[in-house]
Hints:
Elements: H1 2-27, H2 36-53, H3 58-79, H4 89-111, E1 127-130, E2 137-140, H5 141-163, H6 165-175, H7 177-182, H8 187-213, H9 219-222, H10 224-234, H11 240-259, H12 264-278
Antiparallel strand pairs: 1-2
Amino acid sequence: MLTILFDGLAYGMLLFVLAVGLSVTMGLMNFINLAHGAFAMVGGYTTVLLLQRADMPFLLCLPIAFLVAAALGAVLEGTLYRRLYRRTHLDQVLFSIGLVFMAVAGFDYYFGSSPQNVQLPDWLLGRIEIGTDGATLAMGHYRLFIIVVCAAVTLALQWMLTSTRFGSRLRAAVDDQRVAAGLGINVNVVFLSTFAVGSGLAGLGGALGAEVLGLDPTFPLKFMVYFLIVVAVGGTSSITGPLLAALLLGVADVAGKYYIPKMGAFIVYALMIALLLWRPNGLFVRQGRSA
């Protein structure tokens, strides 16, 4: 039981890093980017290519995956996404869905449809066992590494949004773009930077999750629903809600697949429906909003 809880927490932390960029773009920028999983796939394939063809150390691959996905997000935000900020949500959904299918087709053409293998370093293999036979906690080295990295990313992101000048400028730009521009804030640069960071976090999540979740060209489609569940259940007004939602989803998914393999997905969606009936606006909402 303890091992299942540990694996579920690791899975949930990974889902949070993968989905938090989508939460930021939807909650702070009011843009529905269903192509978010494509940036995660870019980070995953970047890591695979660096490991297999450049023989680069795994730890060095992670920041590079973040930077590659962030750079791609910045380019697409400045050339494509910015044109749709004031369009309807339906237009945004159709546009981003189109990008997803283009990404799936492109990666399938260049890399093939076979799942990619990630060769982890030796120090990330194996596990630590604590306790007796009745209550043993088996912590895989790599899952423990995922928890540590994702916790550090979460704290850094929370600090950036709440305690830095960039975070205050972002909140001001979201509340009223005209007033923010009148105060000297370059709204376009703020939004571009935010979108790039969100895309980079997706790329980092894809790099970390390539070995746990599997990596193939259909990655954005397979995990799109999970990203949306995290955002819908957690809410988009802060990162605390998506974090809690991702942890609940991770534990429920791992436990459901372990105890009732044939009903694992049913348990996840049943939990989602129950939480949304209880808190339609998400687990955490801004002050002044109805719960």
